[in-house]
Hints:
The complex is a heterodimer of chains A (86) and B (223).
Chain A: H1 3-17, E1 26-34, H2 41-52, E2 61-67, E3 72-80
Parallel strand pairs in A: 1-2
Antiparallel strand pairs in A: 1-3
Chain B: E1 3-11, H1 14-30, E2 34-38, H2 45-56, E3 62-68, H3 73-79, E4 86-90, H4 99-106, E5 116-120, E6 137-143, H5 150-153, H6 155-160, E7 163-167, H7 179-189, E8 194-197, H8 206-216
Parallel strand pairs in B: 2-5, 2-6, 3-4, 3-5, 6-7, 7-8
Amino acid sequence: MHEMSVAVEVCRLAEERLSPAELPQLIAVGLDVGDDAGLEPDNLLFCLEALLAAPPFHKARPEMTRCTGDVLRVTYLELDDDRQDD
Amino acid sequence: MTVRTIELREPVMARNNEIAETVRRRLAAAGVPALNLVSSPGSGKTLLLERTLAALGDELRMAVVTGDVQTQNDADRLARHTTRLVQAVVTGGACHLDAKQVDSALEAIDLAATDLLFVENVGNLVCPASWDLGEDAKVVLFSVTEGEDKPLKYPKVFRQARYAVLTKIDLLPYVPFDAEQAIGFAREVNPDLQFFRTSAQTGEGLETWFDFLRQLTRRPVPV
């Protein structure tokens, strides 16, 4: 149920790490999600897809890796430096 | 297309946890133990707090931060039993409190004149387990009108809790609930859980709970 809160926090982390010019260039956000993290993976993906499709992002996609334990972390941000904000 | 990857490995909850540590240090500096009450909706968090405020109000200076998705109904109920400030946090749809909300709520509380802080979380056994609020301990409540297997269904919150309160025990004669089995399931998940059995309606078991709170204000909460 708190997947949207987590998704918002993932987006906040991305915004914190990237410059305003880089945000529309973001194409993927890597995530590790543990099976004991208290999250429903499909729900989290749904929330992230919605948030990462909207400004300041531009059609970025979440890439989730399931793992054991209660780990929940952003593992990488992937950018396309040639992408123009349309 | 020129793809560039920025490696992060950053915990998603890092910011919340930082704020929670700030809250914890602030409470520790003021010598105020804090209990985070979690349960499913309707387990009796508010009624237990009402009874606690009414019974111990002359002995302990208790402050309450209470969270609800909508309305300040719980805060209004609690305020009837204390002259002290009850801080209401309306989450506006969120299914849990977070550390920032508690940090903000503490701004209005005079910690130097407080012996004990209760945080009444949003009724939910899933989401509050993922959010550290800076409390000393979580207290998980569940009632005899719920299933005995609640601890097995929601292990994370029972694993994180240090104390458990089995509520509404006055209803035991009327419901098919095996209290020993329920406590056994809880201890399967967390063998160190300290249990209380209470009825806020009849008062049964409340004196043990009150004694625990009295003791809590006299010594540091074990980590």
